[in-house]
Specification:
Layout: E1 4-5, H1 16-23, E2 51-56, H2 65-68, H3 76-83, E3 88-91, E4 97-101, E5 109-111, H4 119-126, H5 137-143, H6 147-161, H7 174-177, H8 180-198, E6 208-210, E7 212-215, E8 226-230, H9 242-245, H10 250-262, E9 270-274, H11 291-300, E10 303-308, E11 311-312, E12 317-318, E13 323-324, E14 347-348, E15 351-352, H12 371-385, E16 393-396, H13 424-429, E17 438-443, H14 448-456, E18 460-463, E19 469-475, H15 488-495, E20 496-498, E21 502-504, E22 511-517, E23 530-540, E24 546-555, E25 562-563, E26 570-571, E27 577-583, E28 593-601, E29 604-605, H16 607-614, H17 624-637, E30 661-662, E31 665-668, E32 671-674
Parallel strand pairs: 2-5, 5-6, 10-16, 21-32
Antiparallel strand pairs: 1-27, 2-17, 3-4, 7-8, 8-9, 10-11, 12-13, 14-15, 17-18, 18-31, 19-20, 19-22, 22-27, 23-24, 23-28, 25-26, 28-31, 28-32, 29-30
Helix pairs in contact: 3-8, 4-5, 4-8, 5-6
Length: about 675
């Protein structure tokens, strides 16, 4: 029989104040748990048991080619202001700077991750009209406001330095006219200056920035991108790019980061975070070619971006087929796109313009496009090679190209691709995209050292954009009544390990403490109740085969909650807090395993449903198609081209993944159980 202790909290709520007291407490300790590598004032607010820091580690500004060519003119300074709660102005669908964007709640931390590959050329193309390079034809096209010319300019840059597969990539001819190396360093310095300007080094510790960039390799549109995040202001002289490593050679990125940062610059620390493995055609996580490569992956990639605006990468389940990619988990239909590569962005005027973006069948979809499968395969690799190279914690982010870090709110979503998905274009051309997610890191204080150490230790979790507070611990024998103990977190740390950690197997199942508090929301935007908590287990049997199982451990999937089809107002109720002490009923101490937590909120309306309804097209209405046709004709009278609102009326029963409603969620980093040696 499954052993579960809930202390009266599984299926009921308790005082939010009590739970917040248990979640984190303030105090001082004799020896700090992280190394301080920078000069700054001590933070007034310091939590021994840590608190959740909400942030975004994947943000593009006008320094990125694909942001600038979409009429997006906000630079890193503006992006940081947005993250801190200030309004910025974005382009509308006609490239006019008219859209006022403002996040509902400020973030705690942000990294600007502009594409390293074209920091120099975009600088030459956009900054100084007195230079000859500014008037290079591709630069003129990059600055052009005519939509089709912008698409041609984007294709020029993408074909030149992103999707090319060569070892020695060709520079743009603009680099023969101007000095791209000098311009690259100038832009890299501007990125650092903006990070320093907005990093709060005072004792208030109100906001943290990280020096960062994106390494952008996508051979034949297979996404192998990584975000490179530095711990402090000790950084490499340049932003290392695929022009330095060649394509299909991200191990060279790790090698150079080790040479130029870890071993080459005192006080320099860095990590790279892969994202969108769902669009990698199975190439993101191959078996390592050597033990050194395996160790480099473990060191440089402690985290993976599990969700962002180009879909989620946890797992994949096709509702129409009733099966998934090595999974039977029906909740793996969440925010999936039908293609397996970056061509999925190639929709113009309501139609995909490339066969590369065609749907990929479940049986042809790369197994390791999905992170859960990667984690399972890591267990098998460790059995055969002695090393598991795939021990990654989870974060989410947005991948915004509109300089809007943390802009992941379904009811406040203005798009992430400048004018390309502004206004009606969002529904027309980017219907299957989403607002993205957030990175949440447990840290003692809001400083670079504390947050970076939390990321390095994988004490982090991903959310689909909301802000529930989630704890996950494993120990040998947590008390059954721990959920009701005012010292719950102190005892959890003292008696076990948090998310992201490893444990040697005990003779009996570890006890897992799982606790979640609903997103508190903000003024005028209340958070949704929690529906349930699940524990996802992956393991390796004695025959070398991997398996997975999903356990519902708290809450109720059939709580009757839903949405009003006319207003999208939530109906029904769920839980403000859930907490459980749980043991695995099928535990085997001889099997390597991992466990992570998935927290599900009550149903709510997807961003696309809100946009459609705001336009007078209701996806729930019997006459939706008629509404869409009428509205589209009106848009055409105002200059729109193609079917604008037809996708609003897609029948979810005929779609493998899409639904007009969704369940926002959080995913904790796993805890790995290493088998007992016999």
């Amino acid at each position: 029989m499954q052993k579960m202790f809930s202390a009266g909290l599984n299926g009921c709520t308790r005082s939010a104040g009590f739970l917040m007291l248990a979640f984190f407490s303030t105090g001082l300790i004799a020896q700090e748990p992280f190394e301080r590598t920078e000069q700054r004032e001590p933070c007034d607010e310091y939590h021994v048991n840590k608190r959740p820091m909400f942030g975004d580690l994947h943000v593009h500004t006008s320094y990125s080619f694909d942001s600038y060519v979409s009429s997006q003119r906000n630079d890193p300074d503006a992006a940081y202001r947005y993250a801190r709660g200030e309004p910025i102005t974005l382009p509308d669908a006609d490239a006019n700077q008219t859209v006022i964007a403002q996040i509902q709640r400020p973030l705690d931390f942000t990294a600007i991750t502009d594409h390293a590959e074209f920091l120099g050329p975009i600088n030459l193309c956009t900054q100084d009209a007195s230079t000859l390079s500014y008037w290079f034809p591709a630069c003129i096209a990059t600055r052009n406001e005519f939509f089709l010319v912008q698409l041609l300019a984007a294709n020029y840059w993408v074909s030149l330095g992103v999707t090319d597969t060569s070892k020695d990539k060709k520079q743009s001819l603009v680099c023969s006219i101007g000095d791209c190396d000098k311009a690259h360093k100038e832009t890299w310095k501007k990125i650092q200056d903006a990070a320093e300007k907005h990093y709060d080094r005072s004792s208030d510790c109100s906001f943290t920035t990280f020096n960062a960039y994106e390494y952008t390799d996508a051979p034949n549109f297979s996404n192998l991108h990584r975000n490179v995040i530095f711990r402090n202001d000790n950084v490499t002289a340049t932003a290392i790019s695929t022009y330095d490593t060649g394509s299909l050679n991200y191990p060279e990125l790790w090698k150079r980061l080790r040479q130029e940062c870890i071993d080459g610059d005192v006080g320099c620390d860095v990590m790279s975070i892969p994202h969108n493995s769902n669009l990698s055609r199975g190439l993101m996580f191959p078996d390592p070619n050597s033990e050194q490569e395996a160790q480099d992956r473990l060191f440089f990639e402690p985290l993976v971006e599990l969700v962002q605006h180009k879909a989620a990468s946890e797992c994949r389940f096709d509702r129409l087929l009733g099966r998934g990619v090595a999974t039977e988990d029906e909740l793996c239909d969440f925010e999936q796109v039908q293609s397996d590569n970056l061509s999925m962005l190639g929709s113009v005027f309501g139609e995909l313009r490339t066969d590369e973006a065609d749907p990929v069948a479940i049986d042809e979809f790369g197994r390791r496009n999905m992170v859960r499968n990667v984690l399972k395969d890591g267990l098998a690799l460790e059995q055969t090679t002695g090393t598991n190279p795939f021990k990654m914690g989870f974060i989410g982010s947005t991948d915004t190209h509109s300089a809007t870090p943390g802009g992941a709110e379904e009811d406040n979503y203005v798009g992430h691709l400048g004018r390309r998905d502004a206004g009606y274009r969002n529904v027309q051309d980017h219907f299957f995209d989403n607002p993205g997610g957030l990175a949440v890191v447990w840290a003692e204080e809001n400083s670079r050292d504390s947050i970076f150490e939390g990321m390095r230790q994988r004490e982090a979790y991903a959310t689909s954009g909301t802000r529930p507070i989630v704890r996950f611990f494993a120990g040998e024998e947590y008390a059954a009544e721990l959920c009701s103990d005012p010292q719950m977190i102190e005892k959890a740390y003292a008696g076990g390990v948090p998310m992201g950690s490893e444990l040697e197997a005990f003779a009996a199942s570890p006890t897992f403490l799982v606790s979640a508090a609903k997103d508190a929301g903000s003024r005028g935007h209340p958070g949704l109740d929690l529906q349930r908590i699940q524990v996802i287990k992956g393991w390796l049997d004695d025959a070398g085969q991997t398996h997975e199982q999903v356990f519902d451990v708290a809450g109720n999937a059939d709580n009757g909650a839903g949405v009003d089809p006319n207003s999208c107002r939530p109906t029904g109720s769920g839980h403000k807090n859930l907490c459980v002490v749980w043991q695995d009923p099928h535990y085997d101490d001889s099997e390597a395993a991992f466990y992570y937590v998935r927290v599900l909120e009550n149903p709510s309306c997807r961003w696309s449903t809100l946009h459609c309804q705001a336009a007078g097209v209701n996806p729930f209405a019997p006459n939706c198609a008629e509404q869409a046709a009428t509205k589209t004709e009106r848009m055409k009278d105002n200059g729109a081209i193609g079917d604008v609102y037809g996708k609003c009326c897609l029948d979810p029963s005929q779609q493998p993944f899409y639904s007009p409603t969704l369940q926002e969620r959080a995913w904790t980093s796993p805890i790995w159980i290493n088998p007992r040696k016999t």
